[in-house]
Amino acid sequence: MITVGMNYQVIDGKQAEFEAKFAGVQQALQQAEGHTSSHLWQDVSDNASYMITSEWSDEQAFQDFIHSDAFRAVTDWGKEEILSDRPRHKIYKH
């Protein structure tokens, strides 16, 4: 089992758009093999900073998802000009 922490810095004023996009990601995650749960968190001291925590059966299941067409279809952050920086993620093993 792994937990992935994915950190996103959103352009100020685009928070609602980011949260709406996450709803689409959440739907894709529910269909992903090996995915257990995901949660969206907003930084209490910086409302343009978010983290998604996502639990997976193993790292390969996560890698398969982020390289899938389903993931690409719901993560067009760059085209939408929602993020102010590249997303960063870390993988934590249980």
From TrEMBL:
Gene3D superfamilies: 3.30.70.100. SUPFAM superfamilies: Dimeric alpha+beta barrel. PROSITE patterns: ABM. Pfam families: ABM (PF03992). Residues 2-91 form the ABM domain. The keyword Isomerase does not apply. One of its GO terms (molecular function) is monooxygenase activity. Keywords: Monooxygenase, Oxidoreductase. This is Antibiotic biosynthesis monooxygenase. It comes from Gimesia benthica.
